[in-house]
Design goal:
2 copies of one chain form a homodimer. Chain A is α/β, with parallel strands linked by helices. The first copy, chain A, is built from 11 helices and 18 strands. Chain A has helices at residues 37-43, 86-89, 131-134, 137-149, 163-173, 186-190, 218-222, 245-250, 263-270, 273-282, 292-299, and strands spanning 2-7, 10-15, 25-35, 56-63, 73-76, 79-80, 100-102, 106-107, 114-118, 122-124, 155-159, 178-182, 198-199, 205-210, 225-233, 254-257, 283-288, 306-310. In chain A, strands 3, 4, 5, 9, 10, 17 and 18 form a 7-stranded mixed β-sheet that branches. In chain A, strands 13-12-11-14-15-16 form a 6-stranded parallel β-sheet. In chain A, α4 (137-149) packs across α5 (163-173) and α4 (137-149) crosses α9 (263-270). The first copy, chain A, is globular and about 55 Å long. The mean pLDDT of chain A is 93. β16 of chain A pairs antiparallel with β16 of chain B.
């Protein structure tokens, strides 16, 4: 089968053996996949990655021990915990030290004709949700994760108007909070009008979410957090940014690291027509799997939003 | 009157005019003051400080509009909020942007024969609490602050066995948690035996408190925090330490900046005989006010615990 392959900083499209599902896993046929900044970081050598990348997808279940799943369109959670360790038993499988992660660590990704995932990772999609919207369940879930970690205040500033910022702002807006967005792309901010999210007007906020992906921006972002307020960080960086912790202490700011989120809630969001309007704008180009290398190149262009690959 | 004076990196003992109390303030005569690392940082130029330092004290109220206070031994909170701004109205006076801070910013400190503070900052001390123990109400309150900010787990690691670490460990132990202490001074850790606090035994903790005062240690300290755990930072640093925020994101760690705490609860702690035994060991030398310069020099020596000045 065809698959995108990353190795030693080079991307290629190649023939690889069909994956074999183990007991408890489904064999999945890709419908549509998204390219994420993490994929671009993996290509640059983040985590010493080699293999098939990709972790945002809608797929069809071709084979499974669970007959109810076969033939269904599904999205899926990317962490594959060991199921046996202390953290797994404590319900913190996403932090299992022995976990594999779809297309990121120890488990081949979805940028291929076929791939596998445990049945328990899969969430069937309703007919009302398109493949293109479904691909964004994973990053939307990541935005929703924030509300699972900490009480969300009335007013939130999201900094960064790339795809992560737009999806995080949309997810947080649906919790009922008023959300402002800071960024350089007027047209990106315009996309959030259906959700009544507007351009940052300055001032301090009880919660600020960093979606810039730019470690040098962090110090300025800290300035926008109210005393006793919260700074949520969602980006992973190759280098360690310098953070003015004295300001964090004196103003008693809480910094919250936030990662993968609840798929069931994200799928609920996908059914909302206003959210769907936003997602249609976040999706910028769709390439066939044969042109995955071109898709990668476009995804890496500055200011690009979501690039997808279709099987 | 005699006062310690900091200016342009130089400490001196000099004659300064008696302070004049305004309406709502008490005139205080120093009994005993503590020298804090913040004082040593101010001397090095932190915050461009010039004037009388000192913010840990037990004093006698000499004059006050509040007749009940006159003649009482008191300790006192160090923040003097404006009382009028949005944060003051929201009950966050400790974060008032216009606040003055005893011996740190805009208000002369307690390392002098006399000083003033608003009546509402003062807390009378019972006869059962010695002057020497009372001086430690301020740093003990800072340790107790953590439990006011966030739920405290069953097991806590305090890193750093200087005076801040010892007092923070003691304060956290009294919340009922089991507390371990990491540090290089075997004799300091021994001091905490009456409270059943023992030497760090390795492993991960749901809460780690940084009391090292060493920005370079932060990255190693982050390694001791469990996934979804909390890192509490209490030290202020002249430079911005580099923090591996990717690890904070991937492991969903929460970093909590923590500062001044509840005096009433700290005074309760001072009444506990086991706490008092620890405090007796944390206090290392007491100098008369006339020898405040020698006290400063000793306080700056490596590995020294609490140095006090007596009027």
């Amino acid at each position: 089968m065809k698959a995108l392959w990353f190795e030693l900083g080079e991307a290629s499209l190649r023939e690889v053996p069909m994956p074999v599902r183990t007991s408890g896993e489904s064999l999945l046929k890709l419908r549509v996949a998204g390219i994420c900044n993490t994929d671009l970081e993996l290509l640059k050598g983040y985590m010493g990655f080699a293999g098939v990348p990709g972790h945002e997808f809608v797929a069809t279940v071709m084979d499974s021990d669970n007959a109810d799943l076969v033939g269904r369109r599904v999205v899926g959670e990317i962490n594959i915990p060991c199921g046996s360790c202390r953290l797994c038993h404590a319900g913190m499988g996403n932090h299992c030290p022995a976990r594999r992660v779809l297309g990121i660590s120890g488990h081949p990704g979805c940028l291929a004709e076929y791939f596998t995932l445990p049945d328990r990772n899969l969430h069937p999609l309703d007919d009302g949700v398109s493949d293109y919207d479904g691909v964004l369940a994973e990053p939307l879930a990541a935005g929703l994760r924030i509300a699972d970690q900490t009480p969300v205040p009335d007013s939130i500033l999201v900094v960064g108007d790339g795809k992560l910022g737009l999806l995080t702002a949309a997810a947080l807006r649906r919790t009922g909070s008023r959300v402002w967005l800071a960024g350089h792309h007027e047209d990106h901010i315009e996309m959030l009008r259906p959700l009544e999210i507007y351009r940052d007007h300055g001032g301090l906020f009880p919660m600020v979410v960093d979606c810039t992906g730019n470690p040098d921006a962090l110090d300025d972002i800290l300035d926008r957090v109210e005393p006793q307020g919260k700074l949520v960080v969602k980006s992973t960086y190759a280098q360690s940014p310098a953070v003015d912790l004295s300001r964090v202490v004196v103003r008693e700011i809480t910094i919250i690291g936030s990662r993968c989120g609840p798929f069931a809630k994200a799928i609920e969001l996908l059914r909302n027509p206003d959210v769907s309007k936003v997602l249609a704008n976040v999706r910028q180009e769709v390439f066939p799997l044969e042109e995955a290398l071109a898709a990668l190149r476009v995804a890496a262009e500055k200011g690009k939003l979501k690039i997808m690959v279709e099987n």
